[in-house]
């Protein structure tokens, strides 16, 4: 009788317990040699390191034994070596056995099954199948518990994200830390995209030129950029298919605010006035027609750039406006900014600081309140954990409440950070805005076209063109600076 050998291992423990592939092969070959009616025809040997690959191999076995017209023997060391998923694999084998097309031989279990097997042998087989299935399910449960423990500890069980690397600790365990070669590039990637000046493709090209590569050192695919931009892991939250988001314990590369800004850009909710374009037209995509709302597009004639309404709605008459004419009122505002005396700037910052000193005590009280609330929340987390260990709360209720408390701690941390920085950043930002305003004319003239576009998008709000006249307002806080520049005597008021 033609005999097919099937040898399989699925875990390292099975290999070390005498069930390695060579050990199984040796036992099965010896069994065939001892049974005169059996003749070795083919061997199927596979290490089940991946379930899908195993299923492909097992399907090959079924197809092969089904192709014989005469009865064949399928020889496997033990019942639990036959297949990993018994509910999927056994029906096919059972059908072939009942049809009298195969015999199942399990030498180590001292069991042979054929079409006319007695009830005692079938009972023996069913018991072995149940025990093997129980063992498989127990392994699955242990794996799930291990992953659940990692999740509750804020640990990540998968490969590190681009921008992070695995390191070996002294206790033999591993940890995930920011990659010194790629971490700063990931930060730059988010910062650039949040400006709204880059599409996924242009950002991909730029980051590739800056040296961003995958963990294998290969050039990233364009789709990797989009995956990175929508991955919450970088601001401190890991994602589980079953439980959703949960806070991880590793160092965040970006802030939640920066991540949210990038999501606004991705979803199209944020206006992207300075999208990177192939030709450096200064105003392309920045202005709209006041009459019909269509964009103004550029054209070159004899070395001069003209802009006109695209008239997509068929309402306006096409009027060509030279770029210099549109730029003139903007430069006029820049010149007004230049007129702010440095002494006025110093006095303004000084008076703002004096007015703000009265809020220092309030800030200190708020910081203390936040810290007390954070410590109280941490105590509640510890009590919750004790309740879970005592089994006085269900796993689902524990997970739900733990997530609520972790979210509260995250919000408290953000609030604490804002209060801690508020006083210092207030004065720094006021001084920075005034300095920038006074020097913006020189900065604009010395900048490249894409940088000029970024400056215009940063300070102009709702720019429209009516006929040949550019109309706009200034974004905050530059509208206040313009008021100061045009009426410096009103500073005291």
From TrEMBL:
Domain Recombinase, by residue range, is 161-272
Q: InterPro entries attached here?
A: DNA_bind_recomb_sf, DNA_bind_recombinase_dom, Resolv_N, Resolvase-like_N_sf, SSR_resolvase
Q: Does the keyword Coiled coil apply?
A: yes
- The highest taxon in the source lineage is Bacteria
Which keywords describe this protein according to UniProt?
Coiled coil
Q: Coiled-coil region(s) at which residues?
A: 360-422
Resolvase/invertase-type recombinase catalytic domain span: 2-154
Amino-acid biosynthesis is among the record's keywords: no
- Pfam families in UniProt: Recombinase, Resolvase
A molecular function annotated in GO for this UniProt entry is: DNA strand exchange activity
Supply the PROSITE patterns for this chain. Answer: RECOMBINASE_DNA_BIND, RECOMBINASES_3
Protein's UniProt name: Recombinase domain-containing protein
Q: Name the species this protein comes from.
A: Candidatus Ryanbacteria bacterium RIFCSPHIGHO2_01_FULL_45_22
